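A common beginner's mistake is to predict each chain separately and then try to dock the pieces by hand. The better habit, illustrated here, is to supply every component at once so that their relative placement is modeled jointly.
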Amino acid sequence: MGDLQIKKQPKKYDAVIVGSGAGGGMAAYVLAHAGLKVCLLEAGPMFDPKTDSNQLKNPWESPRRGASTRFRPFGDFDGCYWGWEVEGEPYTQSGKPGTTPWEWWRARMLGGRTNHWGRISLRFGPKDFKRRSIDGLGDDWPIGYEDVKPYYDKIDKLLGVFGTNEGLENDPDGFFLPPPKPRLHELMIKKAGAAVGVPVIPSRLSILTKQINNERGQCIFCSQCGRSCKVYGDFSSSSCLVIPALKTGNVDLVTNAMAREVLTDKEGLATGISYIHKDDMQEYQVSGRTVILAASACESARLLLNSKSARHPNGLANGSNVVGKYLHDSTGSDAGGIIPELFDRKRYNEDGVGGMHVYAPWWLDNKKLDFPRGYHIEFGGGFGMPLYGFSWGIENLNGQFKVKGKVKEAGGYGASLKEDYRYFFGSHVGMAGRGEAVANINNYCEIDPNVVDRYGIPVLRFNTSHSDYEIKQAKHMQETFAEILHAMGAVQTWGNHNDAHNKYGLHAPGNIIHEAGSVRMGNDPRTAPLNKWQQAHECKNLFCMDGGPFVSQADKNITWTILALSMRASEHLVDEMKKQNL
Amino acid sequence: MDRRKSIKALIVGSVSTGVLVEACKTEDKKAPETAAEAVKEGAAPAINRMKEEAEHEKEVVSKTFFTPDEMATITILGDIIIPKDEVSGSASDAGVPAFIEYIVKEKPEHQTPMRGGLRWLDLQCLNRFGKPFKDCQQPRQMELVDAIAFPKKAKPEMAQGVAFFSLMRNLTATGFYTSEIGVKDVGYIGNVPNQWNGVPEDVLKQHGLAYTEKELRECYDPTKTT
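With all components supplied together, the output reads:
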């Protein structure tokens, strides 16, 4: 450390972007195509799905047969580097009574978590931007659906999403590619849904069932979007935004660059970013006319809180003292079962696209319910590729059902056991409710005064808890799952023991990996760090373009809205630069 | 990229790692050893790994967990659980013992239940038959297996053995059905570039289901060229 010094990059950029996921990738794409000079900092290594994806690998090509590791919590073939823990980068919890620890997923790679995400691409509806006006809880956004709609329209066409126009009030129509036909268990779910009053419609996933341009291929129906796609047949920020942005020649990408803080001048304006390069462990500074944070809702809040100066003693853009607050995730609770009608099924390739072909958008009126906000249901099942954990626990299954006409003793071994594995394969079904938690000022992340990461950067400490709203919502999910399973003739095998003692299976906050709200937008600088253009009230050349700016996150997966909002804010930034306002 | 080209790119992509290894052999004397060693050690160079994962992989395969005697017992038990039948081969044909050796190093939570369970089994055999499990005659081995293979009817005093056998069954099955032999046996026939066009007609009929007109109109159909 004797020769530790700060290296200043001589080039001054129009924008320095921190993070290359959905938000940062879109910002780089828009700015680079507008001719601006961009420096894009990514905390992880380069990743190009074309060469780096584990797509089409067989289970036996992984010595652990696809089992999860701490490097890849979603399995050995998954397309995301890191997850719940990152080596040398801890985070802590307040541990206050009544809190539930936040589970924080962090990707470290070009494109971030968009390399493996579920591709569920749902527009927020008109009601989702104005929830306070409807139920008196939380806050309205400073913008409405009509402000975002043009950008949803553009990204539908630019990035591609399949689905159907159903004319639903709060699940708006879009520009959809044809959806894939439902699989067998999905037809059964649809039929059962109709019987119990749950609408089941084609899912909306950003996967190319048809080719949309010459740079990206059509889906090959291998169901492995989670591994990232070699033919760019689904949306990842790496393949669809950053790599095309690099081709403009206007973007300098720095990988393995861990941002330390936002630099500011005497007037309090942002001048650039200081970062540590993980390869040489040296300190660098890069300067820009504007700075865009898109490091993830929590990392962006952390950067702001760590950027203290005489002009910004409480952290940058934090005169309101709400940076880090209103942190929330989707709610989640799951259940599943086995469908006797599907025992001993005829074999065929039903891989389909990577994810469900049908889903259930929120369908009820909260006035008749004991909780606010809704949830949608995601479905799983069918002939999945056998991976680590395949048919684990058959001793709990094979004594319960007749196999080829006779009930066997549970457990067992030998040729008879082999028959059982074949008999049950492809007959499972799973359901996952994903809903809206009410953003709350008492759920927050802050800087832990005592702990730094391996780079010496102070880390986040979380303080999050569930409210009765979320718990009651999870209870409703479990009741709905049981109803659908029953109606389709399935026997529930898991989730049926969820009750008040475990909050009806409600996942820990953060576990659904939809972090949002920690750098929120609002018209009043006293209650929100950002204005309606995702621009800091107190530092006009600083923007945030990830999940941080969300005032609330609807019962919709947030990526499509991060993309739409990032495009909107980026175009605004370009306009303001042209007008010499930045 | 058109469809044919993109599928060709996929196939070339998966072959290229092999080509690369071959190329190394002729050009560099040191490289082939490392590459060959990586393959031998199960480091699977064909799988994308970040730097930290590659280091972890080396560490896992550098250790040996089970003793030769333990491995012999695992092999016998594995082939009792998944024997060769008219459809496919046995657990040991599919390399399951080596998989179990690997996975307990990767998932240390299995180490004590496996080691202790194997010892429990040997002690039962020593007490009953005067020999450890692997050295007992086959009928003796089966007598003991029958006492622990059926959780519902096993005697209460055999409960620890039942827990061990269930773990052994699960590890064996997961290793077998994720092997090339096992995937074929269970009839998973995906993992290839293809065009999904819905559930086959005869299967729909069998279950009394049909696509609606709306679905047939709106959904992707590879036989239609528009």
